[in-house]
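Objective 1.3, modelling of assemblies. Example input:
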Amino acid sequence: MSEHQLVFATPPDDVNTVHDFLESVWGDDTTLTDEERMAFELALVELTSNVIEHAAAGEGVACRLSVAITEGELTATISDTAEPGSVSLVGRVMPDEMAEGGRGLALVQLLVDDLGYERVGDSNVWSIRKARPTA
Amino acid sequence: MDLAVEGAGADVAVVRCTGRLNMVSAPALREAVTGAIADGRPRVVVDLAGVDFMDSSGLGALASPSEQVLMVLKLSNIDRILRPHDDVATAFDE
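Predicted structure (tokens):
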């Protein structure tokens, strides 16, 4: 069982800050498989990219990212200070093959077991959970 | 991410990417691809062998993908139009 936290603000930070943070998280836990790391990192980076992108029109965004690893599951939450979200989470589907965007949240849903969003005070709180393969 | 562009033959450009292909670096790849086309090389081979992470932001512009890149292509049903090749040489065979 381990818990990790990252506080960042964009600008000047960006998704590379999250990658660097995850590298240290993965270094800390030797029980995770390559597949688990790959899938969870992609889900988390997609989610963070989404938060940053939707905040970029405003004055940047401050985020708190928490990652918890237990024997049974991998979970993460990202809370930000951006404007309320207006993104529908239900039944996200892949856009047309030729589309240049709009795949992020649909990908996240393919990669994790649960994707959640709630407005808590002045923050948007995104959460993902992925069950771990049983030994 | 590092990008290197080199010409091959009369009308082909090879764009080699190294590092993370995400929302930070995707605009530079897009620019490299459109730049190569503008320079008279309409056939662009993007070499992803050195990419250790790619997300949906990296899908906008895309040959020899790593396991992580293949996973994103398959999940997105995009592997039919962005056909993975084993290496740059076989990409030229089609």
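The domain at 2-131 of chain A is CATH 3.30.565.10 (Heat Shock Protein 90).
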